[in-house]
Amino acid sequence: MARFLIGTIPVIGHINPIIPIAAELVARGHHVCWYTGEQFRLKVEMTGAAWRPMKRAVSFYGTQGMDAFPERMALQGVDRVRWDIENVFIPDAAKQADDLAEILADFPADAVLCDTMFLGARFLHERDGGPPWAKLNITVLGLPDTAGDAPPLGLGLTPGDGIAARARNRSLHWMSDNVLFRDLHQKYRDARRDYGLPEGNGTLTDDLLSPYLWLQGSVPSFEYPYRNLPPQVHFVGPLLPSSGSSFTLPSWSQEIERKQRPVVLVTQGTISVDPKDLIQPVCRALASEDILVIATTAGAPIDTPVPDNARIASFLPYDRILPHVDAVVTNGSYGTVQHALAYGVPMVASGATEDKIEVCARVEWSGVGVRVKGSPPREDHLRNAVKRVLSDSKFKTAAQRIQSEMQRRDGPKEAATLLEELARTKHPVTATRSPIGKN
């Protein structure tokens, strides 16, 4: 049996997608060790993996999302992404690498698996010959693209068609690398130099991609078409949590099952959880509609009156709720969107923080829902978008098309099989494919 070392940023949205992979590896008899913050120790150990603490790297980002950093909460869009990269992800790379080296001294892993922004595995591998490392991307694809098939991340743009669109995308990539994020790419190169690595001329975007294996927890139909997708990128399908069958639903859940009126679920995921951003505007927007609104808050308090047609819960298991839901309103949480698509549920997407602007753009592009811009979005725009998704069957048809594609995949099993190959061969795990895009 192989030994796998997992390393994740201590934020729930970075950890949840890896949980089913870790559980599958353990079920296959492999030894799994997981390095992350102590607040997630129980989640780690429930998979059967052994937990290891973060000693040098930042181990606590907050109780709700990343609220341990209040200065970032006032930022939006690209500014918040820049703050995260400059103040958290780059400074922690060397510290993560040193922690991993200490763990590997008594747990000689055959391969490392980490989330998108966990940089320590690359640093250790390049300098000290650490194990080959795989990435599980927890959001949309944002790879270097010299062909111009897709715009750079952070702008929320759809790719467009034809020569002119590709020229625009190439220009935007140049602007992103050489203007918008130029200083951050230099800070990343400085961090490499300080750790004893060649500074090089590449960018952080270049180095996020593992040369060995990149796991994408979705299907090609949800992603922009790339003609030059790297061969080590594998779409494995959604990575859904285990069944919530043991969870006790609130007493009002019978209203959902009776389906006497359309049911709309509104959720803000696990990072940007302030209800004022989306949950409260949606509840107000739909207060006079013959719609049952279900809102999950991730524990964030709601300090305003709740309309009569709204029901509030801190958490609800998606596999118990989504079969009865007619539409989802999301702030662009990648995990929420993948869950909704796995159940063929169309959606309204409105978000502008972290990666969410990009997820919302793909909801619009793939045809599975309506995108509402604005931060916060206008209530009349939200109401009109929800009514449109409920009344126009094309959105549900598009969502069910992607659902059908997802049903042919088994994310945890496919990911575990690819990781086993990496651990066995120590070489890039590649695939032969056609360019991706809408089927």
UniProtKB/TrEMBL annotation:
<dbReference type="InterPro" id="IPR002213">
    <property type="entry name" value="UDP_glucos_trans"/>
</dbReference>
<keyword id="KW-0808">Transferase</keyword>
<dbReference type="InterPro" id="IPR050426">
    <property type="entry name" value="Glycosyltransferase_28"/>
</dbReference>
<dbReference type="GO" id="GO:0008194">
    <property type="term" value="F:UDP-glycosyltransferase activity"/>
</dbReference>
<dbReference type="GO" id="GO:0016758">
    <property type="term" value="F:hexosyltransferase activity"/>
</dbReference>
<dbReference type="Pfam" id="PF06722">
    <property type="entry name" value="EryCIII-like_C"/>
</dbReference>
<feature type="domain" description="Erythromycin biosynthesis protein CIII-like C-terminal">
    <location>
        <begin position="297"/>
        <end position="422"/>
    </location>
</feature>
<protein>
    <submittedName>
        <fullName>Glycosyl transferase</fullName>
    </submittedName>
</protein>
<dbReference type="InterPro" id="IPR010610">
    <property type="entry name" value="EryCIII-like_C"/>
</dbReference>
<dbReference type="GO" id="GO:0017000">
    <property type="term" value="P:antibiotic biosynthetic process"/>
</dbReference>
